[in-house]
Amino acid sequence: MKYPLLTIETLNMQNQNKKDDNNLNRSTILTKYINKKKNYILGTQELNTRLSNKLIKSLDHYVLYGNFRFGKIKLLSDFNENNAIITDRKVVKTITKRLPWIPFNPNEFIKGYKKKSIIPRIVTISFIDDDTIGKLYVINTHLDYYLESIQKKQLNKIYQIVKKLSPRFPTILTGDFNMEIGTPHFDQFIANLNNIGLKRVNVNKKTNDKKYRNQTAIDHIFIPFSWEIKHCGIIKNRLLNKITDHKGVYVKVKIKKSTK
Fold it and tell me: Does residue 260 belong to any structural domain of this protein?
């Protein structure tokens, strides 16, 4: 039996340099990059309203799925993140859920506020029912980078979502987790996902310029154990590297199509 090939990527669109305030070049580069793909799923982070609107107009056979952390408030267009799922496959339904993000401890709140980590965090969930790749769930997120207590709550929420959905259909999880291998609560999260049938794609190279403890990946992809990985790694694209300070992660898999 011939199994379909699927490419899955996760990419944080953040650009700390802000050299291109109107995002014109960023949308052009992203459009050219995405339009060349086929059987493709991209989980995005830091995709603001301005850039989202430009991509919606310029992408050929791709659609953006997901809502924004603040809704469609134009005054917050540069900070109104959409963890959009972009794909050329047939999406039947998408929902966006709010994750825990406010610490109850006043001292933690002050620390998080000073570090600008006290912002709403969301997760996007799409259900795909497609003739080529079958039925599956895609979950994409962007988690807190500073407060361990909030990270733990967010990881638990994501785990509960995966635990609920993965018995129904194969499930993909992508995102900027802001945590590396070796972070105890993230290692436990990976072990918990392993126990319910998801494996982390083994890409460990550094994906962000910030000085994390182990200098390894903070952007991750999880897929079902039954899927065969053909190849994986860091996205190597010169133009993409110019428009984001993250390095995307990719995996190409041979999937067992689910039709149940």
Answer: no
Q: CA-to-CA distance for 187 and 167, rounded, in angstroms?
A: 22
Question: Does pLDDT of 209 surpass 90?
Answer: no
Smallest CA-to-CA distance from 245 within 217, 193, 212, 209 is with 209
Is the separation of the CB atoms in 190 and 260 below 8 Å? Answer: no
Please report the pLDDT score of residue 10 as a whole number. Answer: 97
Tell me the average pLDDT across 160-166.
98
For residue 151, give Cα distances in angstroms to 47, 82, 204, 215, 260.
Answer: 21, 19, 20, 19, 34
**Cα gap 255→258, rounded to integer Å:** 9
Residue span of the structural domain in which 185 resides: 5-254
Residue 15 corresponds to which amino acid?
N
Question: What CATH number is associated with residue 245?
Answer: 3.60.10.10
Cα 232–237–238 angle (5° rounding)? Answer: 150
Give dist(CA 65, CA 94) in Å, integer: 6
| Integer Cα distance of 43 and 8 in angstroms | 8
Reading the block at residue 25, the tokens are 């070049």
139, containing H or E segment: strand 134-142
| Residue 215 domain-assigned (yes or no) | yes
Report how far residue 22's alpha carbon sits from residue 24's, in angstroms, rounded to the nearest whole number: 5
Q: Calculate the CA 121 to chain-centre distance.
A: 12
Domain count, the chain: 1
pTM, full prediction: 0.92
What is the phi/psi pair of residue 219, to 5°?
A: -105, 130
CA-closest candidate to residue 147, choices 174, 176, 115 = 115
Asked whether 169 and 130 are in contact (CB, 8 A), the reply is no
Dump the DSSP string for 216-239. Answer: ---EEEEEETTSEEEEEEE---HH
